[in-house]
Amino acid sequence: MRLYVGCAMWTHPDWQEKPIPPAERLRAYSSWCNAVEGNTTFYAVPQRRTVQSWARQTDPDFRFVMKLPRTITHDRRLTGVDADMSAFLDAIEPLGRRLHSLWIQLPGSFTNLTALADLLDAIPSHHRCAVEVRHPAFFENERAITQLEAVLTAAGAEWIPFDTTVLFSAPPGSAAEYEACSKKPNNPRRTRALTEFPIVRYHGRDDVATTVAGWQPWIDTTVAWLREGRSPTVFIHTPDNAASRTLARRFHAEVAARLPALEPLPTPEPTDPMTLF
């Protein structure tokens, strides 16, 4: 029984209690969490030697959910992207089994399900895919929801919910919350899994108690998924993400309290500065 948890990044200024070389930060992060969102690939395709370094720093059981480049999803909107997809898949090939899923995050104006179906059909079948949509129709229009689910189910792909209901539950109370609200989508919560490997992105607030209270429905859903034999992945976000690494472990612990057979997370590496005494 395996639950993957993680954050939107593997390095953060508030996580550097002692100096860690850039080439070792992913290794340090992987002692806290067993998965990570690969957001950087949205902006640029990494070089293979960089991806090889990511593989060297992580155990084979660590998992990456890698976002397709924006040239594919946002600039070309999934059409005429064969060369771009080939280059991207070649670049991330060194991850091997660590590649949990390809993350297809679509713009808020995107509704072209034919283009999505064509892309999913063209991706080699050994790659698992998960799609994040943001257009309101996919949350409000039953026909659009049914059509999208049919496309995803036919391809064996998952629907990634980005749950921002807690973030938008009250006016922002800080600059970080204001910035998050200005950039994140505000759509209803969705808890239905389509595959054996559901992926959830949950966004809380600055206040830890509010964040933890807000994820309780996901604790119930995650426990149910695990009991059904699914292997979920949950990513925890906060406005500044300073506490997200600790919160991800707390989420895992709350699930484990209800499912004692759940495989434990690794033991975090010591992060206190070294002293002589």
Automatic annotation (TrEMBL):
One matching Pfam family: DUF72
Gene3D superfamilies: Protein of unknown function UPF0759 (3.20.20.410)
Annotated PANTHER family: UNCHARACTERIZED PROTEIN YECE, UPF0759 PROTEIN YECE
Protein name, UniProt field: DUF72 domain-containing protein
Organism: Nocardia tengchongensis
